From TrEMBL:
Keywords noted in UniProt: Hydrolase
Domain annotation Acyl-CoA thioesterase-like N-terminal HotDog: ranges: 47-129
Name of the protein in question: ACOT8 isoform 5
Keyword field contains Hydrolase: yes
Superkingdom of this protein's organism: Eukaryota
Length: 226
């Protein structure tokens, strides 16, 4: 497989200062660049497989990109309902079939089916809306949590775990395998707990999550996101 190409230095970087050619940036940009096969039919490939099955976030992201390619740039996604129906096979690409369920003057609805081996592994419905002010607010309030700049990312936490002789003895293979991965997503847990206390954790976790490195202006713009 040929190496995916990243944008050249200085093109579209803006003021972020992130090196566009680093491996993690390449992973993000390539995984979200779908190959058009026909009208409303796309193929997505995998450049990062963290386990024996596909990463669910990758499937959601690719499906949303496929849906967004079938709407105009002046609408933005405001609702997304997803269902994982089968485990994804990392050995083969994923086909994304987009159905233009409705195209209205203010709202548009797209249904996306991700298919492998002739069977759906994921389905979703995305609703797009023209940007307009509204007095209605439906989302939950942002919880009071420390900003991401004050938190440790998962790689740093894993490094701390590896320095613990007890944890290193209990989980040597798992910790070293995680530490060796080139993960294109940065995750910072808000309240990380030692591995020895995992059984006593509350059934609730909060994270700061973002893509690592440069993702390109076309993926940063509101129209491309929606």
């Amino acid at each position: 497989m040929s190496s995916p190409q990243a944008p050249e230095d200085g093109q579209g970087c803006g003021d972020r200062g992130d090196p566009p050619g680093d491996l993690r940036s390449v992973l993000v940009t390539t995984v979200l660049n779908l190959e058009p096969l026909d009208e409303d039919l796309f193929r997505g490939r995998h450049y990062w497989v963290p386990a024996k099955r596909l990463f669910g976030g990758q499937i959601v992201g690719q499906a949303l990109v496929a849906a967004a390619k079938s709407v105009s740039e002046d609408v933005h996604v405001h609702s997304l309902h997803c269902y994982f129906v089968r485990a994804g096979d990392p050995k083969v690409p994923v086909l994304y079939q987009v159905e233009r369920t409705r195209t209205g003057s203010s709202f548009s609805v797209r249904s996306v089916k991700a298919v492998q081996h002739g069977k759906p592994i994921f389905i979703c419905q995305a609703s797009f809306q023209q940007a307009q002010p509204s007095p209605m607010q439906h989302q939950f309030s942002m919880p009071t949590v420390p900003p991401p700049e004050e938190l440790l990312d998962c790689e740093t936490l894993i490094d701390q775990y590896l320095r613990d002789p007890n944890l290193q003895k209990r989980y040597p293979l798992a910790l070293n395998r995680i530490a060796a991965q080139e993960v294109p997503i940065e995750i910072k847990p808000v309240n990380p707990s030692p591995l020895s206390q995992l059984q006593r954790m509350e059934p609730k976790q909060m994270f700061w999550v973002r893509a690592r490195g440069y993702i390109g202006p076309e993926l940063e713009s509101p129209g491309a996101q929606g």
